[in-house]
Design brief:
67% helix; two-stranded antiparallel ribbon; mainly alpha; 104 residues; 2 domains
Length: 104
């Protein structure tokens, strides 16, 4: 169990570490950059404000890894009598529908 958690943590770290430079480039293209304009700012150069997607991607990869491993080890039964997998999928798509309606 702890080995799987350690692997998931490492996966999240590696994916986030690898995705961060790409999110910095996207932030610069989109304009999500904090440019210091006065002495109150802590940084002396422009700082991107778009690190969230890299962290979320790392988290999702770790969660998917844990779900697959625990399902293969029969520690969690996603599609058993309790139908945890179907409930998870249904809630994800239900939340996506709410997000879709918020932006359109």
């Amino acid at each position: 169990m702890w080995g799987d958690i350690a692997i998931a943590f490492l996966l999240a770290f590696i994916v986030t570490f690898m995705a961060t430079p790409y999110t910095i480039k996207i932030a610069q293209k989109v304009g999500a950059v904090d440019i210091p304009k006065d002495k109150r700012r802590m940084h002396n150069k422009a700082m991107p404000k778009f690190g969230g997607p890299a962290v979320i991607l790392g988290f999702l990869v770790a969660i998917i890894y844990l779900l697959i491993v625990k399902s293969l080890e029969h520690t969690i039964d996603l599609f058993g009598p309790e139908q945890y997998g179907m409930k998870l999928i249904r809630n994800v798509f239900r939340n996506c529908d709410h997000i879709h309606f918020l932006y359109h």
